[in-house]
Amino acid sequence: RHDRAWRFLQSLSFDFALLQETVVPSWAGAVWNSDRIAYVPRRTGALWGTAVLSGGSSLKTFEPSSDRYPWSHELQGASPITHTSDEKIWLVSLHSNAQPVPSELLLRHQHDHVLRCRHDGVWEIELIAGELQEILAEKSFFAGGDLNQSLLFDKVYGRSRNNWKAFANLAAQGFVDTR
User: 50 pLDDT exceeds 80?
Assistant: First the structure.
């Protein structure tokens, strides 16, 4: 099924594609050249990951430093950060886990400043968003993907407007929902 999806992408004319839960087929590098595919496995040893694919421009991967951007560094498989070689356009393909970040992982870095949608958990997107705000400041960027959140979840599942609050928190940090 991954191969079929990538074959479909091959039939399209596009500038950029943000892909989550993907497996890059072995033939893809020959079609797009390796400098037009930025891929990060979801975690060490994972067979699938998150990617940015360029229809034409070369991509460079931004490597967040562990001291300045600890969560973006720690959770790179959730959000590869790339830009065109001329740095005119920055792209972030987001894949936030549907479950809260495990408490043992939260002990590794500071997170009390993070805007949260719930008091009893923190999600990957919440940890990454504040750092992305700094990384992408004053840059033209496009970020998107699978946040495992939806405004409809609150209505259908009656989750006390937690998803609504998550989107409001992203908006407060400068992210615009373009749906």
Answer: yes
Place of tokens 């500071």: 110
Q: How far apart are CA 161 and CA 157, in angstroms?
A: 10
Pairing of strands 81-84, 90-95: antiparallel
For residues 161 and 154, is the Cβ–Cβ distance under 8 A? yes
Q: How high is the pLDDT of residue 177?
A: 80
Q: Which segments of the chain are extended strands (E)?
A: 16-22, 37-41, 49-54, 59-62, 81-84, 90-95, 141-146
Residues 15, 55 contacting (CB under 8 angstroms): yes
For residue 129, give Cα distances in angstroms to 44, 75, 85, 96: 22, 12, 23, 11
Query: Model pTM?
Result: 0.89
Q: Does the pLDDT value for residue 162 go beyond 80? A: yes
H or E segment and range at residue 131: helix 124-135
Contacts of residue 85, Cβ cutoff 8 Å, sequence gap at least 6: 35, 57, 58, 59, 60
Q: Are 59 and 84 in contact (CB under 8 A)?
A: yes
Residue 35 carries which DSSP code? G
Edge-to-edge strand ranges of the sheet holding 49-54: 16-22, 49-54, 37-41
29, two tokens: 């590098």
